[in-house]
Please model this.
Amino acid sequence: MAEAKMEEKFPGCGIKVKPHIESAMKRLRTIYAIVYDMLNQSGFGWNDETKMIIVDSDDVWNEYIKRHPNAKDYRNAQILLLDKLVLAFGKDRATGKGAVVEQLEEENNNDEVEIDLIESPSVNQSQ
Model:
């Protein structure tokens, strides 16, 4: 069904569930897992206006990165689709923690999930 929808919207694109859509979903799930874990740590928060993670201090950041090096690119990165990632993947990681994630789940509880892969979250690799 996903392949048919992509072909309908973008005739001749040739996008297939395997490997194209599965690969994109895996990447988005990884981004969500990294951000979710950070937001559930003391010293981290979320700025909904800038769509960026807030860190209390450089010390908090440096200690976290020592234990989670895969999160290094997310300090100054906009995660534009976090609310949609919560809708898509929130149930997979729900632990009862994380006010930001819970708030986004409540706000979007009845919305349809439509993730525009073209507008995926940009991670600033130079930061």
Notes: Confidence is low (pLDDT under 50) at residues 94-101, 110-127. The beta strands are 44-47, 52-55.
